[in-house]
Amino acid sequence: MARAYAELFAGLRVDPAKVLTTTFEANHEELVLVRDIELMSLCEHHLLPFKGVAHIGYIPGVDGRITGLSKLARLVEVFARRPQVQERLTSQIADLLMEKLAPRGVIVVLECEHMCMEMRGIRKVGARTVTSAVRGACQSDGKVRAEAMALINAR
Ligand SMILES: Nc1nc2c(ncn2[C@@H]2O[C@H](COP(=O)(O)OP(=O)(O)OP(=O)(O)O)[C@@H](O)[C@H]2O)c(=O)[nH]1
């Protein structure tokens, strides 16, 4: 039992800031977007799972440095493996990216289904909650935001 909880809360043992230490020179000034990163977390109210996908985009900063693509997924994992609410999970990912990469902009969109709404309480199976956190140019520039959203929604 203790081991099961240790696995569920594994993200608490990892310093999220250390996930984003891998950066590369790429002279890239355009949007980088990783879509459909699967995620599973635990609602902090009921300790029941919520799961879905994260879409993370950023526009590198003036130095043009990029981070490893897997690091974006690792960041989701670290913040998800702890009791959460979806809104906080979304903004924690965006804020750490802003802090560590100093990008021109960041967009994070999460789409999740919450077991606490499906198997108890209101019992609505399949309801999806969509949250977003936009920072920098993704927040202030409508064209940038529209491009990111179009890429996120392209299927
Ligand atoms: N930005 C970018 N990153 C890439 C590309 N191809 C591979 N990578 C990433 O390059 C990074 C290399 O990071 P390292 O920490 O040196 O390698 P690693 O230990 O294998 O990293 P993990 O994949 O996180 O286990 C990884 O995050 C890869 O996902 C690419 O085309 N663009």
TrEMBL record:
Single GO term (MF): GTP binding
Listed pathway(s): Cofactor biosynthesis; 7,8-dihydroneopterin triphosphate biosynthesis; 7,8-dihydroneopterin triphosphate from GTP: step 1/1
UniProt-annotated binding residues for Zn(2+): 43, 46, 116
Catalytic activity, reaction form: GTP + H2O = 7,8-dihydroneopterin 3'-triphosphate + formate + H(+)
Gene Ontology biological process terms, A to Z: one-carbon metabolic process; tetrahydrobiopterin biosynthetic process; tetrahydrofolate biosynthetic process
Keywords from the named record: GTP-binding, Hydrolase, Metal-binding, Nucleotide-binding, One-carbon metabolism, Zinc
EC number: 3.5.4.16
GTP cyclohydrolase I domain boundaries: 1-152
Cellular-component GO terms for this entry: cytoplasm
SUPFAM superfamilies (UniProt xref): Tetrahydrobiopterin biosynthesis enzymes-like (SSF55620)
Pfam families: GTP_cyclohydroI
Family of the protein in this entry: Belongs to the GTP cyclohydrolase I family.
Record note on quaternary structure: Homopolymer.
Protein's recorded name: GTP cyclohydrolase 1
Gene coding for it: folE
